[in-house]
Amino acid sequence: MTPFSYRVATSTTEALAAAPDSSERFLGGGTNLVDLLRQNVEQADALVDVSRLPASIDETEDGGLWVGAAVRNTALAADPRIGARYPMLSRALLSGASAQIRNMATVGGNLLQRTRCAYFYDVPGARCNKRVSGAGCDAIGGFTRYHAILGASEQCAATHPSDMCVALMALDTVVHLDDGNEKRRLPLSEFYRLPGNTPHFETELRTGELVTGIQIPSCRAAVNSTYRKVRDRSSYAFALVSVAAAMRVENGVIADIRLALGGVAPRPWRAAKAEAALAGRAPSQEAFRNAADAELADARALGGNAFKIPLARSTIAAVLGELAGDAA
Amino acid sequence: MSKLQNAIVGGVRRVLGQVPAGWLPGGTPDPLIQRRVSLGTQQPRIDGPDKVRGGARFAAEVPMDGLLYTALVHATIARGRIAELDTGAAEAAPGVALVMTHRNAPKLAVPPPIGMTSMKAAGNNILPIMQDPEIRWNGQTVALILAESQEEADHAATLVQVRYETERARTRFEEAKADARTPDSILIEKNRLLKGNAEAALTAAAHRTDAVYRTPWYNHNPIEPHAATVLWKDGRLIVHDATQMLNGTAGSLAKVFGLKDDQVHVSSPFVGGGFGGKALWDHQILAAAAAKLAKRPVRIVLRRSSMYRLIGGRAETEQRVALAADARGKLTALLHHGYSVKPLHSVCDEQYGLTGRSLYACESFDIVQHHLDLDVVANTFMRGPGEAVGTFAIESAIDELAHDIGMDPVALRLRNLPDRDPVSGAPHSQSDPAKAWQMGADQFGWNRWERRSTRREGEWRLGLGCATGTFPYARMPGMSVRITVDDEGRATVASAAHEMGMGTATVQRQHAADRLGLPLERVDVRIGDTSLPFATMAGGSSQTASLGAAITAASSKLAGELVRLAGNDTPLAGLRANDLEFAEGGLRCVGDPSRQESFASILRRAGRRQISVEGESSAPLEMLKFAMHSTSAIFCELRVSEATGEVRVTRLVGAFDCGRILNPKTAASQFRGGMIMGLGMALTEETLLDPRNGRIMSASLTDYHVPVHLDLPEIDVLWTDIPDPRAPMGARGIGEIGITGVAAAVANAVFNATGKRVRDLPITLDKLL
Ligand SMILES: Cc1cc2nc3c(=O)[nH]c(=O)nc-3n(C[C@H](O)[C@H](O)[C@H](O)COP(=O)(O)OP(=O)(O)OC[C@H]3O[C@@H](n4cnc5c(N)ncnc54)[C@H](O)[C@@H]3O)c2cc1C
């Protein structure tokens, strides 16, 4: 770890008041960034702690919720409004990491946590295009059990590891950004990039831009929602495949369906094709499987992750079956 | 072991075959088997309060003035040499005191290998350490930084630049088979076992199974990382280490640095888990070498990732097991052939080929194992070496055979229980697996078992499985203790033995109290330091029996010395050691309790404050005369998701036949801990070696999945508690048997639930989709 300076910001203005050409990095709970610095995957010479910025969860006019970036994962999961209106979000949060880590981790940090690809972490044993642009990728051709089957490129097939973000993706969440000059809002679906030829760019975040919070729109379907995470042990492991889904059935047909996948792509993956295949259809195991097939038609395996295609298929079907209940 | 040693061991066995059992040490059962006061009772660990309060000092916590901290730079290629090495930036970094590489490291001899013959050797990875630019495995240390703080050392390590010339490395199990070696012996047994005509029996059999089972490389992950705090003082090397081989480490370091044995002092009062992985590896040697160069004390604490690079694990194996049985399920052939990784610089056999020699009566055997040489860090012993993986193969095969015959797998096992050693014909010292099976089956409710489970709950299919576990008895010669009794009637037992959390001191205190006729509170046990009498390793589940024998030997000496000291002015006058027993804080005449005198009274009359004697564990001849194995019956209940292939173990029962249990509390922890490790082996753990460059890609607890609490079911442990009349205190070792059999029980339950037979561990969900 390189020596770095450290300061605490208590307001957005303070957080953004860095010297013009400073390479200051924001520090949330530090559960990811500190590890990355210690392992020399990332370097920073100045940190500004934004974990003490206002951390409130407020009602929005449209009946949704606004969540400050500094809200801790534990607090978000425990909020009764989240539990009642978006059960899939609290389940996703609680399936991540450990209680201790969730107590530290912030919403902002969770959005921006980096991949768990073992080759990305192995400095200096492995080449990685994410770490050093153009260096090459040792993961492809190596162990790819945790790697992407959707949205990957020849340069990078690392997955986004967050659980929270899968649920947020299904909920059409909007990210609020501020770089001191401009306040922006980006839907989460536009916030994350696919790797293409530039896997070192993971989001649309600009240098020095702060995530101030997220806005979760109201969603009637989400009352009937869940999150299922499939992993290599019962807890404290990253997803091999995860499914966040919400479903509203009216008059025997699917009136609203939200479906997102984790563990299968470089970003939290909104299963738009599956949603399209289901909208207006009567819920049935056959419909669920067809929808999953529609989503996975483009899936490409690297070898070690080939099992994720059938796994994603059957997990999607199981989760949708659970949400449909007697309707299916 | 050489052919010569084979011949000697064989010769001794033949001679002993004609010697009456009573002639042997342990020929008369240990009287403590009948006369237990504290032994057998539940006692909390005496190290517990210190550990809970943070008072127990581990190797990485020993305070020292002027300490330097260490960071390591590991090679990133598997074979070749260092072409360029630039340490300039690291040397110039803040706080750096020294960068040690092959260019400036002191001359170091290769460490002597752990062996059956020298108890002063603890080396695992028998290669030159930082003596040349050669790279022999991916992860080898190429530079060591010493700095004023851990952070400065870590930072400087990132500044070292290395360029390598790469050579083709051997990293693939399959390819290495072409050059497999077939050693003459495995531990002290002949490797090749041919008895009867297995091939003919297999061909003629009414029922037969023949399959290949695979187990991966498993890494050691004790909670305490490998660590040492090292100091040179007046030409002596003082090492605060985390080791399960104190005297072995001291003896090896003496050889490496060209010192006399008494110039090395190793202290290791507490070890945060060993499991076979805490012997001598490169890091202690590197730390001592760096301390010598820097002329300052040095602390080395391996990062978790460095533990994967520098500390070997359980060797990968591939085992073929073929079984033949007649129509009634009587075994007629047991064939067990296999390969395991054992590089030339490695010391430890993965002795799975021994597992099948004691479990079942069988007309014919055909057993042999081969070693594969790869460019990887040396493998080593890991809890239940041999038996942990051997039982996976054999006990899966037994289950396959039972299924084929259409028999209850418990009944098949009971039908084939041997009444003596199936190979040598030696009598058992004590063996009652049938009782263990009965107890376990009752507790578990095995009567629910169906040949193919039909039970399900939603998407979950439920299954039951079982397997046998086994581990041999071992007692080490040369384990010694000193017993000191003082004029207040207190006794202290001292030995350079090891406390890795299993309860060594706790149980030997119980033992000494009963042996010397003292209440527990009047006995102290001191262990964990080479200034104490010489001790053998804590390995092979041998420490309890070995210390037991040493305390027994010392106590008879003590009786002799005390009666001599007592002189004529005592009710004991004229009695010999044989006529005496320890009781009520002193000695008394066997059969005449009126002739008695206390330790305090004897010592005071003689004007002595205290008396000390040493005793030593004798040659373990009982092991040669008798078949001495512990066995267990393991039962597993689990569910497998039809949607995801996830396996959830919901119940585990282990019933153990291990001789007498000395302390139910510490014993239950050993069994349960072993079974939990077995679950990791069965379901989640696996070291990932990237064959392209020999790099371990699972070098963290994120990527190497040990079980978490949520993976653990209810675990019941039971024991037969039948004393072994040939073992001190009637007890065989129990540290390792817990892990054995578990992986097979899990695999068999998975088969019962799903009809899928998984023959390669770990049973991850992709194998069940
Ligand atoms: C052992 C372990 C297991 C884990 N398991 C899981 C799991 O199963 N599922 C899962 O989803 N996650 C898991 N995690 C990851 C965990 O969720 C993340 O580490 C955590 O959410 C990151 O939040 P943080 O506040 O600590 O971020 P930090 O580490 O502080 O920061 C992460 C990144 O976000 C940036 N950042 C932080 N706040 C802001 C802001 N307001 N604006 C702009 N940039 C910002 C930082 O600069 C940094 O780049 C695990 C982590 C660990 C260590």
From TrEMBL, chain A:
GO molecular function: FAD binding; oxidoreductase activity
Record PROSITE patterns: FAD_PCMH
Domain FAD-binding PCMH-type: 1-221
Keyword annotations of the record: FAD, Flavoprotein
InterPro entries in alphabetical order: CO_DH_flav_C, CO_DH_flav_C_dom_sf, Diverse_Substr_Oxidored, FAD-bd_PCMH, FAD-bd_PCMH-like_sf, FAD-bd_PCMH_sub1, FAD-bd_PCMH_sub2, Mopterin_DH_FAD-bd
Superkingdom of this protein's organism: Bacteria
Flavoprotein listed as a keyword: yes
Protein known as: Periplasmic aromatic aldehyde oxidoreductase, FAD binding subunit YagS
Species, as recorded: Pacificimonas flava
Biological classification of the source: Bacteria, Pseudomonadati, Pseudomonadota, Alphaproteobacteria, Sphingomonadales
From TrEMBL, chain B:
The entry's keywords: Molybdenum, Oxidoreductase
Listed Gene3D superfamilies: Aldehyde oxidase/xanthine dehydrogenase, a/b hammerhead, Aldehyde oxidase/xanthine dehydrogenase, molybdopterin binding domain
A Pfam family it matches: MoCoBD_2
Sequence ranges assigned to domain Aldehyde oxidase/xanthine dehydrogenase a/b hammerhead in this UniProt record: 53-168
GO molecular function, one term: iron ion binding
Signal peptide, first to last residue: none
Entry annotated with the keyword Chloroplast: no
InterPro entries (alphabetical): Ald_Oxase/Xan_DH_a/b, Ald_Oxase/Xan_DH_a/b_sf, Ald_Oxase/xanthine_DH-like, AldOxase/xan_DH_MoCoBD1, AldOxase/xan_DH_MoCoBD2, AldOxase/xan_DH_Mopterin-bd_sf
Taxonomy, superkingdom: Bacteria
Residue ranges of coiled coil: none
UniProt key word Oxidoreductase: yes
This protein's name: Aldehyde oxidase and xanthine dehydrogenase
